[in-house]
Amino acid sequence: MFTGIIEEIGTIRSIKRGDRSAVLDISADKVLTDVRLGDSIAVNGICLTVTTFSSRNFTVDVMPETLEKTSLSTIGPGSQVNLERAMAAGDRFGGHFVSGHVDGTGFIADKRSYGNAVLYKVEADETLLRYIIPKGSVAIDGISLTVVDVTETGFTVSIIPHTLAGTVLQYKEKGDLVNLECDMIGKYIERFVTWREQKKSRASLTESFLSEHGFLD
């Protein structure tokens, strides 16, 4: 579990690609201070497992599902990535519940200054937009952000200078792909409501109902 408060920006040192998988070697500093093998580190919002590490870098395995459904397929050596260690019990909780399980990707449709902030408009598929609401939470490349507005094709977020300076969003431009994780609370609510409706539907298929509508002789 993560909070969406990025700890530092790391740099991809190398990528070893297999047929459909990859091994990333990432240089970092802060996230390595107490790292252990098997620890979880969110890389651009994707929960990945540390397989080797030193005082200056760590490696993670990326499976086919992750490469296919996230923006990791677009990065290369020298690319910079957001990094966050898994939340420890007792830590301050400054963002929102972020699982590190990316729901899909969107792309930056617009970027413009607005006072002391920068407004980003992100376009995404309707299967993701159904979970995004004004003033709700969304994780973009692992960054916990508050939604400003939602349209039929996308949503906007407003980034303050502090967040911009400490994350890879400062390097993102129009057309760039970003990882999106919707608020898990909304997804759980939808699942619960859908399950209840399905259960009611199954319960209504009684013998008398089927007979009345000609399904039984």
From TrEMBL:
Residues 1-96, 97-193 form the Lumazine-binding domain. GO terms for molecular function: riboflavin synthase activity. Pfam families: Lum_binding. Keywords: Repeat, Riboflavin biosynthesis, Transferase. GO terms for biological process: riboflavin biosynthetic process. It is an enzyme of class 2 (transferase). CDD domains: Riboflavin_synthase_like. It comes from the Bacteria. Its EC number is 2.5.1.9. Lumazine-binding repeats lie at residues 1-96, 97-193. It catalyses: 2 6,7-dimethyl-8-(1-D-ribityl)lumazine + H(+) = 5-amino-6-(D-ribitylamino)uracil + riboflavin. Gene3D superfamilies: 2.40.30.20. Pathway: Cofactor biosynthesis; riboflavin biosynthesis; riboflavin from 2-hydroxy-3-oxobutyl phosphate and 5-amino-6-(D-ribitylamino)uracil: step 2/2. Homotrimer. Catalyzes the dismutation of two molecules of 6,7-dimethyl-8-ribityllumazine, resulting in the formation of riboflavin and 5-amino-6-(D-ribitylamino)uracil. This is Riboflavin synthase. It comes from Aneurinibacillus migulanus (Bacillus migulanus). The lineage of its organism: Bacteria, Bacillati, Bacillota, Bacilli, Bacillales.
